[in-house]
Structure formats: C-alpha cells, structure tokens
Amino acid sequence: MRILGRYFRGYRRESVLAPLFKMLEALLDLLVPIFVAWMIDTDIRAGGMDRVVWYFAALLGLALLGLGFSVVAQFFAAKASVGFTGALRQALFDHIQTFSHGELDRLGGDMLITCLADDTNQVQTGLNMSLRLLLRSPFIVFGGMAAAFAINVRCGLVFLVAIPVLFTVIFLIMKWSIPLFGRVQAGLDKVTALTRENLTGVRVIRAFCREAGAVEEFEVSNKGLTRLNLQVGRLSALMNPLTYVLINIAAVVLIQQSAMEVELGALPQGQVVALYNYILQITVELIKLASLIITLNKSVACAKRTAQILQVQPAMTYPAQDAPEPQPGAPAIAFEDVSFTYPGAGGPSLSHITFSVGEGQTVGVIGGTGSGKSTLVNLIQRAYDPTQGVVLLRGQRADTLSRQQLCQMVGVVPQRAMLFQGTIRENLAWGKEDATEEEMWRALTLAQARQVVEEKPGGLDFHLEPGGRNLSGGQRQRLTIARAVVKRPDILILDDSSSALDYATDAALRRALYDRAERTTTVLVSQRIASVRQADLILVLDNGALVGAGTHEQLLEQCPVYRGIYDSQVPEEPQAAGITGGVQA
Prior knowledge:
Helix content is 63%, strand content 10%. The chain starts with 11 loop residues before the first helix and ends with a helix.
C-alpha cells in the first residue's frame, strides 16, 4: 500500500486541513450539549431570561461556524481525493502502457479495465470519507466520553464500558468483510470478461445460435457475484443493528444512573440532558463510522488490487539511449537459433528458428493454423523476447534498440484491423505525425484505399466511429495498411492483413508493394500460396519448426509441407493463379 502514497504528495496540505476543520466542527458539536444544559439549569424566575437568550445566540453562532468549518473541510477533502485519484489513475494507465504482451496476457484486460474504472473510484470515495469522518467520529466518541466524566464520574463509567464493546464489534465485522470485498471485485472481473467477450463476439454467437448458452453462462457468473455481494452485505448489515442495540442498552443504563444522581441532588437536570445528548451524538457517529468502515473495506480491497498492478515490473525494458547506426550490408532481419514459449504453455511455439533476410527483400511466412506465424512476427516487432536465441534487426539485437528506434524501424499491420475514433487523417497520422497530405494519398494509393477515401464525404476528414465500425472489413484493412505505409518503416510486417480483400485487390496490393521505390523489407504472413509465391524468401512453419526456406519453385521440389499447401489451394483458386501470373509478368 505504500506505493500509493507517492501520489498523495501534492495534496498533503489538503489532507491535513480537511480533518483539521472537521475536528474543529466536532469540537463545536461537543460544546452544544453544555450550552443546552446551562439553558435548562438557568433559573428564569430569578431573572435569567437574558442568559437564555445569550445561550440561544451562542448555539446559533456555533451552528453557523460549524457549517462553515464543514464546507471548508469538504472542499479540501474533495480536492485531495479527486486529485489523488486522478494522479493514481494516470500513473496506472501509464504503467500499463509499459507492460509487454506477456504481462497483458497474464493479468488480462478485464482486470485492468475494472481496476482503472471501478477500483480507482472506490479508492476515491473511501479517501474522501476518511478525510472527513475517520478522525471526526472517534474524536466525537472519545470527546463525549471525556465530557461525560467531567459531568459525573459514575455516569461516565457507562461510556467507558459501552465504547470499547462497540469498537470490538466494528473491528470484528471489518476483519471478516475485507477479504469478502476482494472476492467481490474478482467476481466483477469475471462478469466484465464475459460481457466484453459476448459483446465482441456477438456476431459469432448469433451465427451459431448460441444466445441461450451465452445468457446462461453470464447468468451463472452474475449469480455468483450476487451471492458474494449478498454475503458481504449481510455481514455489513449487522453493523447498524448491533451498534443500535448496544447504544440503547447504554442509554437505558445511563438514564437509570442519572435518575439516581438527580434524586440524590448530585446532578442537575440539565446535566442529565447533556449526558443523553452525548450518548445520542456517539450513536450517530458510530453509525457513520460503521458506514465508513464498510466503504473503507471496499476501498482497501480495491487499493490492494491497484497496488499489485503498480508493483508488476515489465519483463521487457528498453535502453534509454539509441543504439548506434547499423553497419552497411547487415541483414534486415536475422534469427539465430530462436525459440519461444508462452508463459504457462505446455511446449514451445517456435523451436530453433534460423534465417536471415536482406535489406529490401520480401519474405513470405506460410504454414497451417497454430504453426507459429504470428509468434514469429511478434518476435520481430519485439512484442515478446525469445526464450532462447537472438533476434537481429539490421545487424543489431532487437533488445538493444530504444523504443523510439524500434517504432521507427518496424511498421506492423496486425491480423485484426484496428482503427480509432476520429478522422481518416488523424488515423493515418498515427504512422507519422507530420505526414503531409501528399504522403497520405500516396500511402492510400499503394494500399488500394484511395478510391475508398475519395468516395467518403470529406475525404481525409471523414469521421470514423470507434473501431472503424462504419467501414467494411476490407476498407478497414486497407486503411490500416496505409497507416503503416505512411510511416515508411525499414521493415513492414503484414500479418495476414489482406484476409478480407478479394483476390484482385490483394494482387494489386502485392504488385504495388513489389514495385515501390523504397528499400523496405516486407514480411508477408498469409495462408494463401498466391500471397507469398513472389517473395524473395518463403519460410514454411509447421508446429513451430522451420521446415522449409527458399523460393516458390525450390519449396515445391524440396518441402513436402509447402507442396501439400499448394496442392490443397491451387485447384480451388484458379483465378488466383492467373492473377499471380499477371503479377509475375
């Protein structure tokens, strides 16, 4: 929990002033029963009416002054809690951005989303209430007990017995409920995960008529979360009735003891009213404290989850300084006995991969589903570090390149086309912030997306909805390719990024990639023979092993796996072969 304290540094003054003004308000509240007792004990018949008026004016002044203290305290508490939570949320988001794919896979996006959204709000609420009530309530309780002893020692003993019993009850309930609140937040993670999965895959669910199954699965998780909430709610609900019972018992004993003191003449009637007011004040504050404890339990559980994420150290680090310029003639990409195993996986996804690609060459990567194609390109862009071997980019180890160097060197078009809310111009600028309009149109032309943009209202200023959902799948893919091309990277990775394109558009895209003047090394990942057959080097993967490397003609003769893929596709894709022949010519 200490890790969260650093985000409180800018709000230390507010965190001191807020409880200070609340304690001043509490001090005024403790004075009220004394003034009421003096009013009651004033003998009006003896000409004490002026004193009654004076006491009433004093009570009114105490009320107004207490209101002012309360407003000031609330201002400082809100400023401190909102400022702290804003800094914490920003730091949490920035820290998540440093995570490698390994940490993101392990923690899960659902937990991170819940932590950023719900957990930080719970921490803010708990902090706000703590600054206002955490010191005020105990101050009222112990201050009331001290005032009771000052009025009458025997009556004060009632307070001395009742208050420790009440605190014991509150402590036990708090001790039992804190772990339950942690389980509630974990259950919320699961419900969030199911919601996210169902919303993302709603088309697949409907295509397979699995709506009933999805509803049932969500219902099971939701009922589990409901049971946890009911369990912790029942436990927390014991707080108020238990405190009420104990306080009322104490009030009965207090009144009985006070009545005896009044009959003996040792205690004025006004002092009895003061003692009863103190017991009522303590009752109210203990109820507030009980509610505060419930809120604090949630906040502590959420704060622990947030602190755990902040304590996760990224597995991959980047050098602070840029690596030296690469030597001329060095391979653009080289794998030297590279193996990789995902955390928790039963076996390696890539095993002993060795190859090199020259600058400006085109390399195709092909293989069956699960053969390791995406894993290989993830290692090139350093989404992961290999568990064995070395990945070289332009003659330098990938882990010696700074983040800026790596981003400038490698451009990636992922399998799933992802566009962001905003204009087409803003999305293309992700590749290069200072890109001119001419550069954008050139990239759109190469990506076969120029006509798509020209037909949209506003052209480059056409507004895209989140995820680009107002575009078709093929349009999104072409704009994603254009975004990477604008960057003009040394290495361009197309990870099965033309799967939504028809054969004619795919062939035109490959022709444009082959004919461009830039000396860009292109990595084409595909399951289509037609997409990779013109590559200078084709890598054939099978179950994580490199079973073939060479040109199309060489692999047809030497690699049975490649030959099998070719035989399975060519009879079904005569048009693709004709188009490819056109590209060759």
